Amino acid sequence: MRSPRVHDVVVVGAGPAGIGVAAALGRAGVRAVLVDRYEVGASFRRWPEGMRLITPSFTSNQFHQVDLNAITPETSPALSLTEEHPTGQQYADYLGLVVELEDLHVRTGVDVLDVEPYDDGTLGVLSADGRDLYARHVVWAAGEAQYPRTNGFRGAERCVPTVQVPAWVDHPGEAAVVIGGYESGIDAAVHLVEAGQRVTVVDPGEPWNVVDADPSRTLSPYTRGRLRRAYATGRLELVGDARVVEVAPEACGFAVATDAGESFHSDGPPLLATGFVGSLAVVRDRFAFDEHGRVEVTESADESTVVDNLFLAGPALAHRGAIFCFIYKFRQRFGVVAREITDRLGYDAAPLEDLRDHGFLLDDLSCCADCAC
Ligand SMILES: Cc1cc2nc3c(=O)[nH]c(=O)nc-3n(C[C@H](O)[C@H](O)[C@H](O)COP(=O)(O)OP(=O)(O)OC[C@H]3O[C@@H](n4cnc5c(N)ncnc54)[C@H](O)[C@@H]3O)c2cc1C
User: Fold this and answer.
1) Residue 275 Cα, ligand 1 centroid: separation in angstroms?
2) C-beta of 76 in contact with ligand 1 (< 6 A)
3) Which residue is closest in CA terms to ligand 1's atom 33?
């Protein structure tokens, strides 16, 4: 039997993280194979109709302030899409454009179930249909959006995660309950109010009252503006200080009960915006996690502390208490991962150095300890 081909790098996930790392590797002449269970930008293609990026796009690249939503220093979604807040469809189009520009190699329809380390140091990228690949290095970039949290209280399975709603206008009824009041929850509430529904948002943390210097811990200005307008219609109620404990069927809909003894009626299935378990659940044994459930990776290269040559890119990244959940945050580590892999393959990593000037190669994490980055 012929021995299987061992690729230099396989990147799992053709979203902004995977494409961004593959593009960075390309600068040093390292060719990665990108695999995705669906298509390029699949998570964005599946966003509810009308949902937009909360981070604004603006073409400021020439002055070393790269468009916040760009995944390479030379591109700008604002320029290619002529939108400040692109929809999911538009952003997926931008990602497709980068794949073309960078001449990246993408294999779609590869649903990865595990990354298995072998004694000789290679990694097996095992897929659902047996089209396994083998690589010297693997970058896990399968994101979070396709893995929403769907438990946490009795009857949670009766709810629909907000990221799985195709179009808000089609959500049934005239009264809706949204569980979770951070970005996704408020986005759902705003769209439902626009569609004419009366909406109750329940969140014990009252994110609408939180102001924090770190955009990962507070509602974006874009969302706050829309929230104010929705609230002014009188059709939006924000319930804090109460945790949902049960969703049960009742006549013509569902009863959403809280630990404060209240119950709210939802005509259609209540909407779940309680966060994500994330794709790391697929390869849970291949990474270590701290007591808060945050993944542990090396500071020098975002490499797994359990499996050598397995790297992480994307919103699950965290270092020294700082979370890298936005594109403009996690893209700062594209150059770090790419440089490490390039070095290990014996290529010249010098062409990656210019990424530093553009905020795509952040290797000094000392700021994370004492500032809100
Ligand atoms: C609803 C929502 C709104 C957001 N809005 C913003 C925003 O406005 N601005 C911002 O900066 N960030 C935003 N974020 C943060 C978000 O995490 C990132 O923008 C971005 O999607 C993360 O990129 P990614 O490439 O890691 O993940 P994804 O975009 O999810 O890409 C992962 C890819 O991996 C594939 N995949 C998943 N599992 C497997 C598997 N097992 N095998 C093979 N392929 C797999 C998927 O099909 C997908 O194409 C938002 C997140 C969510 C959930």
Assistant:
1) 13
2) no
3) 13
Output the pLDDT for position 143: 98
Q: What is the structure's pLDDT at 372?
A: 47
Ligand 1, pocket-test mutation among 19, 34, 36, most atoms within 8 A of CB:
36
- Locate the ligand 1 atom nearest the alpha carbon of residue 16 and give its number: 25
95 within ligand 1 shell (Cβ under 6 A)? no
* Distance between CA atoms of residues 303 and 290, nearest Å: 15
Give the pLDDT score at 180. Answer: 97
- Cβ 42 under 6 angstroms from ligand 1: yes
Which of helix, strand or coil describes residue 228?
helix
The residue whose CA has the least distance to atom 53 of ligand 1 is 145
CATH of domain 6-146+276-370: 3.50.50.60
How remote is the CA of residue 43 from the centroid of ligand 1, in Å?
Answer: 5
**Candidates 3.50.50.60, 3.20.10.10, 3.40.50.1860, 3.40.190.10; CATH matching 156-272:** 3.50.50.60
Own/partner long-range contacts of 294-300 (Cβ < 8 Å, ≥24 apart)? 294/318, 299/365, 300/336, 300/340, 300/363
The residue ranges of every structural domain in the chain are 6-146+276-370, 156-272
Q: Chain-wide mean pLDDT for the chain?
A: 95
6-146+276-370 and 156-272: same fold? Answer: yes
What is the C-alpha to C-alpha distance for residues 361 and 342, in angstroms, rounded to an integer? 14
- DSSP lists the bridge partners of residue 32 as 9
For the cut 80, the answer to whether the pLDDT of residue 367 exceeds it is: no
Q: Is the pLDDT of residue 368 over 90?
A: no
Question: Closest Cα to atom 10, ligand 1: which residue?
Answer: 326
DSSP code at position 12: E
